[in-house]
Structure formats: C-alpha cells, structure tokens
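agent: user wants the structure for Pro-resilin from Petrolisthes cinctipes. delegating to structure tool.
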Amino acid sequence: MVIVLGLAALAAADSGSVEFRGYGVPSSESRSFESYESSEAKYDFQWAVKDDSSYNDFGHQEGRDGDNTQGSYYVHLPDGRLQKVTYYVDGDDGYIADVKYDGSASFESGSSESGSYEAPRYTPPQARYYDSNESK
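agent: tool returned. relaying tokens verbatim.
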C-alpha cells in the first residue's frame, strides 16, 4: 500500500512540474504596460472652527490646480490680534506667504479676551469609611 501511495505522489509531482529558467530580468511577455504616471492634482477645500467658550477661532482654505496652489488661513491670537496668511505656490518657485495682523496686541491680566485663565485648584478626595452593617 505504501508503495502505491509513493508512486501516485511521484506521478502527481512530475505532471505539474514547471521548467526552471533561472533568475534574472522578467521576460517582456510578463511585463505590464500600465502607466503609473500621476495625473495633475486638482482640489479645493475650506474649514473653520469658532468656539466662543474656548476662544478658538481659526480657519483655512486652499485650492490647487496642477503646480499652482493658493490659499489662506487665519487665527485669533491670545494677544487679541487676528493673524491672516495668504499664500501661493507656483511650480518650483516655492512657498510665497503674505502675513498680516489686524488689531493691536493687548496683554491685560485677568481679561477673558486675553486668553489668560486662573489655574485650577486641586482638592484631594475626601476619604469615606463605611460600617460593614451600613448600606452604601
């Protein structure tokens, strides 16, 4: 019985054998001619955050068409000023930014608009002890 199984395994292995051609560059028949060239980038986006309770007010918008990118962003700074940045990128010329500030800096202590906050006070938890006969 073992001899019959061995002969069957040998016959199966021989019928599915593949000719080994060695290692090297794949033949032109197996090469894919798909192009991995990327297309020109094109997008537009815009977002903003405004939360009065945390004094967060900022946003960003940008558009791109091929090598040309333009956009702007703004943020209300803790000193009360509004910073606005307008920028563009034109191909390989690099990032060109125009930064402007509206308002004047104010560092008044205790003012909620200046972004200063009172540090929280730590209060340790109170220990509670229960009598084994008492319900919690």
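agent: one observation worth passing along. The mean pLDDT is 79.
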